[in-house]
Amino acid sequence: MLQNLFIPARSLASVANHSTTVRQAASQAYHSTSVRTVGQAAGCIVQLLTSRTLQTTGHSTLVRHLATTQSGSRSFLTSPPAPGHNTSAMSVEAAKALAGAAAVNNHVNAATKVVGVGSGSTIVYAVQRLAERVKEEGLEVRCVPTSFQARQLILQHGLVLGDLEIEGKIDVTIDGCDEADRDLTLIKGGGGCQTQEKIVAEYSDTFIVIADYRKDSVKLGQAWKYIPIEVVPMAYRPVMGRLGDQLGGRAELRMAKAKAGPVVTDNGNLIVDWYWDQGREMNWREVNTIIQCMAGVVETGLFVGMADKAYFGMEDGSVMDRCRGGQ
Description:
By secondary structure, this protein is of the alpha/beta class. It has helices at 9-15, 20-30, 38-51, 57-67, 89-107, 123-137, 148-156, 164-167, 194-202, 236-247, 284-292; strands spanning 114-117, 142-145, 160-161, 170-175, 179-180, 186-187, 204-212, 227-231, 250-253, 270-275, 297-300, 302-303, 309-313, 319-323.
């Protein structure tokens, strides 16, 4: 019998999309004497689902993903790691999945008609959960994307694609972040999608943020060192110069990794990453206004006073939530 369990089977089941069938399989894995890590548990669940010929995409994709743990990775079902112990990518993905599921479960209901879909790696899990609830509960929602990636996620999961031109406004937007401070001031734009993300968030009744535990900070700069800024191509060099003159730090044009030249956004613009002086106290609302007023700047990756609530998937399998203002 497992001793000192750190995550009960129901938590693993919630990661695996809240399916009754998966819950039953997770319960069997929980009582197995051979299961001691989340990788083993996930593998056991997949095997049980296969034996029941119920290995549908909705059930198996996420569980198989969790099962792909590396040798020496953290045991996610046993006691917490010792200080300084490196957690595996698998545990980070599980934390993302927990946050995504919590946001969809708590903020999408039968009255929700339009959902803004963010961009990045964490939003994948929220879309998976949303697609399952649409199928199981018959929810009628239209999804407004914040990027090319988000649009593809919506279509791949069989959800109805919406558009701000048609919808006008959005009931709730769920999106990730690169970092969030205690007041839910966000840095976004690591994926270069901050302009569309900010537009969709601004025209939403509720803006919910999802992230894993690495993105939760007391103050900006603990986890992320720069502010992404979308810039019209002809203005990137003068904007970089003005950032240094008015705000200090240094600015760099973001270069692409799979093509020659700079990163080009969905809007056909460039990204300037501004590394601010970490030793200088920043009023982020003022900083955001200063940058936005520079000719040639399209949008910043600073989201100040916009997020209503955030869900952070934690290392111990719990989900921590925080409202704007640190509550």
